[in-house]
Design a protein that fits this description.
With 73 residues, the protein is low in regular secondary structure. Helices cover 14% and strands 0% of the residues.
């Protein structure tokens, strides 16, 4: 196995790749692609208060003895 330095590996990658030109396309056409920058909505989604799926997953064993007077974190 031949190990090369980080700088050498980075140079090799940059020498053999190029940046893609910016493009705009419909959201539905972006399957299996990655955005180069954050995408922020101009509106709240959903547009109403919804807690049906808010919260944190937990292991039932971690909260077995939890109660309002004795919360488990």
């Amino acid at each position: 196995m031949h190990i090369i330095s980080y700088d050498s590996a980075l140079k090799t990658i940059l020498d053999h790749t190029r940046a893609l030109e910016p493009e705009e396309k419909p959201f539905a056409g972006c399957c299996r692609q990655v955005a180069a920058e954050d995408i922020c909505s101009r509106i709240d989604v959903p547009g109403w208060l919804s807690s049906a799926r808010d919260g944190f997953p937990s292991d039932p064993e971690d909260i077995r003895d939890a109660s309002p007077n004795a919360p488990r974190y």
